[in-house]
Specification:
33% of the residues lie in helices and 21% in strands. The protein has an 11-stranded parallel beta sheet with strand order 1-2-3-5-7-8-10-12-14-15-16. It comes from Prunus avium.
C-alpha cells in the first residue's frame, strides 16, 4: 500500500474511487441532423474527405453517397527529386478512387462536378465516362482542368457536353483541351457563366461557343496569345453582361507589332475587364449599356515599345466613352492624357496602385482646361485623389500640391 494511501487511512480519510466520477458524456448532435443538412455540409469538402466520414459510425456509412457536389483534384508532382514510380502509383489510385465513387454514389442528381487532373492517352475513355455520368445526372456546374506534358496529346471535349440542358456554369482550364462544338444551331441553352482558360485560343471553335449560348451572361477568357501575327476574334453574345479578357503574350520581349483584333458585339454588356501586356485592337459594336470598365497593362516597358499603342488605346477608350466607372493602369492614363481629359464623362475614376505623380498631373492639367464638364467631380472621386495628393506630399514630392487642392475645391 502506498504512503499516500496509508496517510489517508491514518487521518480517517477515504480512498478515492476512480470509477465514481465518470467523464461527462458528450452528445453527438451532428449525427442527429437530417441527411439533407449533412449532405449540404459535406458538399463544401473535397470528395475524398466526404468519403472518409463513412468510418465514423453506421449512421455515416452512406451519407457521402448523396452529396450533390463531387470534387476530385489530383496535382502531379513536378519536383526534380520526386519519386516517379510512387507518383504513378498515386495517380492510378486517384483514377481508381474516382471510378469507385461514381459507381457507388447511386442515381441522385449531381449539382457540381469538379475534375482537376493530369492525364495520358489511356485515360481518355475514363474521363469521357465520368463527364458523361455527370451530364446524365443533370449536372449544373462543370469545372474541368486537364494538363499534360505531351503537347501533341489533345483532349477533345465530348459533344454531349454542348447538348446538356441543365448546365449553368462551365469552367474549362487546360493546356490541351480542344473545343469542337456542333457546326450549327443553338446549344448549352441554360449556360449563364463560362470561364475558359486555354493556351493559344483558336478563332472558329471559341467563337461558336460564345455566339450559340443564348442566355450567356458572364464570360471570362484567360488565354496565352501565341506568335501569330494575325488573330481576328469575334465575341458576340446577346445577353452578355460581364466580360473579362486576360490575355498575356507568350513572348512580350521583341517585336510587338502583332495584329490582334477583338470585335465585341454585346448589346447588354455592362462590365468589361481587360488585362494584357501587348495591347490588342478592340472594336465595340452596340456598347451603349457599358457601366464599368477596367483596363490594365501588365508592363509599362511593353507599352513604350509597341508602335501602335497610342492609336489602339485611343480607339479602345473611344469605344467605351459612355462608362460611369473607369479603372486604368498608369500606363494607359499617362500615354493618353489628352484623349482622357476630353472624351470621357465619368463619376468615378480609379487610378490603381501604380498611379504616379506624373499621371495625376496629366489628368488635372487636362481637366482644368475644359472645366468641370470633362469630369463630374464628386466626393467619390475627390476623396481618393486627395489621399493620393497627401501621400505624395508626405513622400517629399516637389510638385504643386496646393494647386491640386485648389482645383479639387472648384
Amino acid at each position: 500500500m502506498g504512503s499516500r494511501v496509508k496517510g489517508l487511512l491514518l487521518m480517517g480519510g477515504k480512498i478515492p474511487n476512480k470509477k465514481s466520477n465518470p467523464p461527462a458524456r458528450v452528445e453527438d448532435k451532428i449525427s442527429k441532423l437530417p441527411n439533407e443538412v449533412l449532405c449540404h455540409i459535406l458538399s463544401f469538402l473535397p470528395t475524398k474527405y466526404a468519403v472518409r466520414t463513412s468510418i465514423l459510425s453506421t449512421r455515416w456509412k452512406n451519407v457521402w453517397a448523396f452529396v450533390p457536389n463531387l470534387d476530385f483534384k489530383y496535382v502531379e508532382a513536378k519536383s526534380y527529386f520526386f519519386n516517379r514510380k510512387k507518383d504513378k502509383s498515386t495517380s492510378a489510385g486517384f483514377l481508381t478512387f474516382v471510378d469507385r465513387v461514381i459507381s457507388l454514389r447511386g442515381s441522385s442528381d449531381i449539382k457540381k462536378f469538379c475534375l482537376h487532373c493530369s492525364y495520358g492517352i489511356k485515360d481518355f475513355a475514363r474521363i469521357d465516362g465520368w463527364i458523361r455520368t455527370a451530364i446524365q445526372h443533370n449536372v449544373v456546374e462543370l469545372d474541368l482542368c486537364f494538363e499534360t506534358t505531351d503537347k501533341d496529346l489533345a483532349f477533345e471535349l465530348p459533344q454531349f457536353i454542348f447538348m446538356c440542358k441543365t448546365l449553368v456554369v462551365l469552367k474549362l482550364r487546360s493546356n490541351c483541351i480542344t473545343n469542337a462544338p456542333p457546326a450549327s444551331g443553338c446549344f448549352l441553352l441554360s449556360l449563364k457563366i463560362l470561364h475558359v482558360r486555354v493556351e493559344y485560343p483558336v478563332n472558329d471553335s471559341m467563337e461558336k461557343i460564345f455566339s450559340c449560348c443564348p442566355v450567356l451572361e458572364d464570360l471570362t477568357i484567360d488565354g496565352l496569345l501565341g506568335s501569330d501575327d494575325v488573330l481576328n476574334f469575334k465575341i458576340s453574345a446577346p445577353e452578355l453582361k460581364t466580360l473579362r479578357l486576360i490575355l498575356p503574350h507568350r513572348n512580350w520581349v521583341g517585336d510587338h507589332d502583332h495584329q490582334y483584333c477583338f470585335l465585341i458585339n454585346c448589346p447588354k454588356l455592362e462590365n468589361i475587364d481587360l488585362k494584357q501586356d501587348i495591347l490588342s485592337k478592340y472594336l465595340f459594336k452596340n456598347a451603349k449599356s457599358l457601366v464599368k470598365a477596367s483596363l490594365n497593362l501588365f508592363s509599362h516597358a511593353v507599352a513604350d515599345q509597341q508602335p501602335d499603342f497610342s492609336n489602339r488605346a485611343n480607339a479602345l477608350l473611344a469605344g467605351i466613352s459612355n462608362v460611369k466607372y473607369l479603372s486604368l493602369s498608369a500606363h494607359v492614363w499617362e500615354r493618353n492624357e489628352e484623349n482622357l481629359s476630353r472624351g470621357i464623362d465619368t463619376s468615378l475614376v480609379d487610378y490603381g496602385s501604380t498611379c504616379t505623380e506624373r499621371t495625376l498631373c496629366y489628368h488635372v492639367g487636362g481637366c482644368c482646361h475644359v472645366g468641370a464638364a470633362a469630369l463630374q467631380v464628386n466626393n467619390n472621386f475627390a476623396a481618393p485623389l486627395q489621399r493620393n495628393i497627401e501621400a505624395l506630399a508626405e513622400d517629399g514630392s516637389t510638385w504643386e500640391t496646393k494647386a491640386m487642392q485648389t482645383w479639387l475645391a472648384f
